[in-house]
Amino acid sequence: MKNKISIAMSLTLIICITACSNDETKISENNISKSHNMGKNCMQCHNTGGSGEGIFKAAGTVYDINKANTNPNGQIQLYNQAEGAGQLIATIKVDSKGNFYTTSNIDFTAGLYPVVISSKGNKKYMSDPTFKGECNSCHNVSEPKIWVD
Fold first, then answer.
1. Residue 72 contacts by C-beta under 8 Å, 6 or more apart in sequence?
2. pLDDT of amino acid 22
3. FRET pair for 98, CA 20 to 30 Å: which of 8, 22, 64, 74?
4. What is the pLDDT along the chain (149 residues), one digit of tens a residue?
5. 113-117 and 123-125: which strand pairing?
6. Is residue 1 part of a domain?
7. Handedness of CA 87, 134, 83, 119 (dihedral sign)
8. Which of 74, 65, 145 is closest to 115 using CA atoms?
9. For the range 137-142, what are the long-range contacts, defined as Cβ-Cβ under 8 Å and sequence gap of 24 or more?
10. pLDDT at 4
């Protein structure tokens, strides 16, 4: 009986460690360079059961006007109406490598309108709503890169 309880407790601990290891809080910050794989779909790894640390709710990469280099230390704002109107739902800072990401819950169900803001304060608006935070799954694939001057 002791053996069965010991085995059950060990399995529970292993499951908890495996499941919890991906439950880390990860939020990008200006002037921090912990990210990697610029331009790639971050959420291929940063998902439930994925190999990346944290389950991202929104993530992507911002480039400069020439779309050749990343554009660091700006921010992404998500609104419930176009052109930065309506309610500001979330703000995600862009790190020093040009990547942005968050594990914070964001509800994309009704569609959100991103505004990309450079470190200089220049803004670029996405005219159509997005229903997911997996930005690089379209941008840099079937859509142009995310960019701001």
1. 30, 62, 94, 95, 96, 97, 98, 119
2. 65
3. 22
4. 555 555 544 444 444 444 445 678 999 999 999 999 999 999 999 999 999 999 999 999 999 999 999 999 999 999 999 999 999 999 999 999 999 999 999 999 999 999 999 999 999 999 999 999 999 999 989 999 999 99
5. antiparallel
6. no
7. positive
8. 74
9. 137/41, 137/43, 139/60, 139/61, 140/39, 140/61, 141/41
10. 55
Count of alpha carbons within 13 Å of 80, Cβ hemisphere only? 8
Query: Would 12 be classed as within a structural domain?
Result: no
Task: Give CA–CA dist 84/103, Å, rounded.
Answer: 23
CA–CA separation, 105 vs 41, rounded Å? Answer: 18
In-domain check, residue 140: yes
For residue 112, list its beta bridge partners: 130
Mind listing the pLDDT tens digit for each residue in 36-57? 999 999 999 999 999 999 999 9
- 12's enclosing H/E stretch is helix 2-20
64: helix, strand or coil: coil
**Beta carbons of 29 and 67 less than 8 angstroms apart:** no
On whether residue 11 sits in a domain, the answer given is: no
Domain count, the chain: 1
